[in-house]
Amino acid sequence: MEKKPDNNGNRFQLDRVAFYGRTLSEYLKRDDDTDHLKRYNRILDCPSGASSFVVEANNKYEVNTVGCDPLFDKDSRILQKRGEEDIE
Fold it and tell me: Residues with Cβ < 8 Å from 60, sequence gap 6 or more?
């Protein structure tokens, strides 16, 4: 992705944001424990992407988990197409 200066010349924009996500087991492999899930009891997953993490953390650990993503305002068919393109 290429850096593009904004109007002030000191920031950059991304040409594209990939739409993919992770499962709870993938997060746990990275962190190697579940204590932090129980300790904080609140998680904001951002960018969430096409992830099952939020529902899994809510259901399995009863953690108040919310997912947000800059692409969530798009139609689900568009998101599916973007996700398939990003996987390729």
Answer: 24
